[in-house]
Amino acid sequence: MEQPGGGPRSDPADPSASGKQRHRTVIRANRTRRPAAERAAFAERLATWTPPEETRRLSCFVGVGDEPDTRLLIAALTGRGIEVLLPITLSDFSLDWAVYTGDRDLVDARYGLREPTGPRLGQAALADVDVVLVPALAVDAEGRRLGQGAGCYDRALIHVSSQTPVLAVVFDDERLTEQLPEEPHDRRVDGVLF
Q: How many DSSP H helices and E strands does the chain contain?
């Protein structure tokens, strides 16, 4: 069974794919060394983010493992009356979506993920959000996003209007000045949450 990080989208003969894998290895190693206090401070800072005023519904993800912890952010957003959609990873690595209704309704899922148990809204639910927050390992200055490698968000973002802001959630040192490798199926992000 393939897991995010060793995903089905990369062709080892493609120099962009091998360049992405080199970056993933380095960034994942850096994430494992990140002190708990720094992670906690970053999570608190994320929770202070204010989405655009017209935002009524957005998509996010539950950060797990070494990813930025988004739980405080999700709680803050729902506390403002914003409906938050969370992903459910399907067997083909595409994403379905359900509304976040509280931590008690999140369950452990494949690949170490935490997913909502509510009614599924379908893969096209992202067409109806005002902002999309995506996980990433790194983002460069031109919006190239390095994901975990399974292509889940590349598939999901095809449902998002080009007018809807897509923002990556990365630690400060994962905002790179060097250009990241890019493949034809990659969609650039419009910015970084912080």
A: 4, 11
